[in-house]
């Protein structure tokens, strides 16, 4: 989809609903230092928690104890790579969020990890962002149940342009997945690939509260939480969700991180 089409879609949605994040609980506001910044992201109908990358950025900011404001009427022309989310601070546009956050406040959640653990963490992040993410995308847009739910997220868009917008996004996702490669696999093949990914994450976590057995979360814990939460928080059953729900250590890990950093949401799901 072209930037102009996406921008038109965002503008139309914003005319019909309030697209600003609900206030963070007072305890969060009081505990965060004054470090004003704005996250521009896709926060449609308050289900950002279903979008892995948006959830990941917010989780990381809370992990670093940084105060921020969420705005969901972004100008896509400002997005460095034409994608959301990105950060704006004092007129500066940032997309390498995590390096910038770490550099600005000398924040290093992985300082206690040895080199081998850091290598494993990086490889696992690539598994999440460059493999599992695309399986999630196919499920959301190119399966019957997934698309039926996805359409409900756009229900307040005017009827006269809703179908056109949805079909353009769906076609764009289909083309992206085909070029990436995973769109060429059957549903059964993708299920097996997803099963391998989930088993890998579960084995890596083991019986520890956090990956690598640390006392506090590392950056990899935030990444895993963001993708697992985006899978199991959807309000319907589907094969990928079942795979995750059968790994109780991943479910408990998700709840643990959720209760730590997103206390305004319900994490007592089963």
UniProtKB/TrEMBL annotation:
It holds the Pfam family GST_C_6. Belongs to the FAX family. It comes from the Eukaryota. The lineage of its organism: Eukaryota, Fungi, Fungi incertae sedis, Chytridiomycota, Chytridiomycota incertae sedis. This is Thioredoxin-like fold domain-containing protein. Signal peptide: none annotated. InterPro entries: FAX/IsoI-like (IPR026928), Glutathione_S-Trfase (IPR040079), Metaxin_GST (IPR033468), Mito_Protein_Transport_Metaxin (IPR050931), Thioredoxin-like_fold (IPR012336). Residues 53-145 form the Thioredoxin-like fold domain. Residues 194-257 form the Metaxin glutathione S-transferase domain. GO terms for cellular component: cytoplasm.
């Amino acid at each position: 989809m072209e930037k102009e089409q996406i921008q038109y879609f965002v503008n139309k949605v914003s005319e019909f609903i309030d697209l600003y994040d609900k206030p963070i609980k007072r305890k969060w506001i009081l505990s965060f230092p004054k470090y004003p910044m704005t996250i521009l992201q896709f926060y449609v109908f308050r289900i950002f928690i279903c979008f892995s990358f948006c959830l990941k950025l917010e989780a990381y900011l809370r992990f670093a104890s940084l105060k921020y404001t969420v705005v969901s009427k972004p100008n896509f022309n400002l997005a460095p790579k034409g994608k959301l989310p990105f950060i704006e601070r004092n007129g500066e546009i940032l997309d390498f969020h995590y390096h910038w956050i770490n550099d600005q406040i000398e924040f290093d959640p992985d300082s206690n990890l040895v080199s081998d653990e850091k290598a494993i963490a990086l490889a696992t992040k690539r598994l999440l962002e460059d493999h599992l993410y695309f399986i999630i995308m196919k499920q959301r847009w190119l399966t019957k149940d997934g698309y039926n739910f996805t359409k409900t997220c756009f229900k307040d868009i005017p009827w006269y342009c809703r179908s056109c917008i949805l079909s353009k996004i769906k076609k764009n996702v289909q083309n992206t997945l085909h070029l990436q490669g995973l769109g060429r696999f059957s549903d059964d093949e993708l299920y097996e690939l997803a099963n391998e990914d989930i088993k890998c994450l579960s084995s890596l976590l083991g019986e520890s509260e956090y990956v690598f057995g640390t006392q506090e979360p590392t950056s990899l814990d935030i990444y895993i939480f963001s993708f697992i939460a985006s899978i199991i928080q959807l309000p319907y059953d589907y094969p990928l969700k079942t795979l995750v729900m059968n790994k109780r250590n991943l479910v408990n890990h998700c709840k643990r991180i959720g209760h730590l950093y997103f206390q305004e949401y319900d994490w007592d799901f089963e």
